[in-house]
Amino acid sequence: MRYLLRRGGFFLLTLWAALTLNFFLPRLMPGSPLQALRDRTHNKLSPAALQELLTSYGFKPDENLAVQYVDYLGNMVTGHWGVSIGGSLGVPVTTIIGEALPWTLGLVGVTTVLAFLLGSLIGTVAGWKRGGRLDAVLPPVFVITSALPYFWIALLMILVFSVWTGGALPSDFNYETGLQPAFTGEFIGSVLRHAVLPSATILITSIGGWILTMRNNMITTLAEDYVRMGRAKGLSGRQIMLGYAARNAFLPNLSGFAMSLGFVIAGSILVEYVFNYPGLGYLLYNSVQNVDYPLMQALFMLFTVAVLVAVLACDLATVWLDPRARAKG
Q: Which residue ranges does the record assign to the ABC transmembrane type-1 domain (predicted)?
């Protein structure tokens, strides 16, 4: 119980600090919503009219900063995130995020989980058969690919599989224009075809880290006394690899996976931008470009909560999986 209270207190304190930074950082950025709106309207509205328009949407730049901060904290906690004052002027922020969130979860979320599982599996086998063919080829190759920039791999994928092949795979958006979203074979097929290149980009650039980390963890774990004891007891190689070595080598990877799950909500901004994919990463880019405070604040808050919840879940899972973490002293 004391452990849960301590972790819960840390969660709340970190959340408050992140929300406070979330309030002040956008206001320290160059530009302002008033200037951004003036640029979008090509100076056709007077400053008074622009000010009145923003005020009607709930944004009051002339209000005392302390009052704005208190109102902001209350709105973040209660879910009253306001309306967009950027490109989607007047549209509720919850509506905008609700439309983009499923695409990010479907693309980045599934790909991140797949990269983690495949990377951990390959790293386990490579560490178990250290010096073998698999260990000599796959880890170095994927470590090199993971060091390449997201946007470079994305552009290369577009060049090879879209431009040079005459459009064999689509290079932008999430489904064919003209289709109506529905649970039909045509629409689902279009969504999957548009997800091939961005998901492959994320997979190629992220799997190498999981392979290398799991391989090194396996090599370290195989030198432990309990693994030698398992071999001395005559257990099969499969039992030792999975039940003794991989189970313990997997625990350090769990923390990194929790962090990556939290950042799934943020989306891969560069990948979504290159492929014009309408997820949360692309939405964040547009909100910064348009100096859209309400949308930026809601997105940053979601990213923070996602990371904190993932880390908290990882801590609880580690305590459950590792008896040493539950021991006192």
A: 101-314
CA quadruple 83, 85, 87, 88: dihedral, nearest 10: 20
Neighbours of 180 (CB within 10 A): 8
pLDDT category at 267 given cuts 50, 70, 90 is low
Residue 329 pLDDT: 42
Residues 313 and 307: their CA atoms lie apart, in Å, by 10
CA distance 209 to 147: 9
Nearest residue to 272 (alpha-carbon basis) of 81, 39, 65, 111: 111
What is the Cα–Cα distance from 178 to 224, expressed in whole angstroms? Answer: 60
Angle 256-261-267 (CA atoms, 0-180°, nearest 5)? 120
* pLDDT tens figures, 100-147: 888 888 888 888 888 888 988 888 888 888 888 888 888 788 878 878
- pLDDT score for 297: 86
Reading the block at residue 172, the tokens are 């932008």
Phi/psi of residue 92, nearest 5 degrees: -55, 140
Residue 221, Cβ neighbours under 10 Å: how many? 20
Which ranges of the chain does DSSP label H, i.e. alpha helix? 2-28, 33-40, 47-56, 65-78, 93-104, 110-128, 133-146, 150-158, 185-221, 225-232, 237-239, 247-264, 269-274, 280-289, 293-321, 323-326
Mean pLDDT value of segment 156-161: 91
What residue ranges define each of the domains in the chain, with the CATH number in brackets? Answer: 2-78 (no CATH), 93-326 (1.10.3720.10)
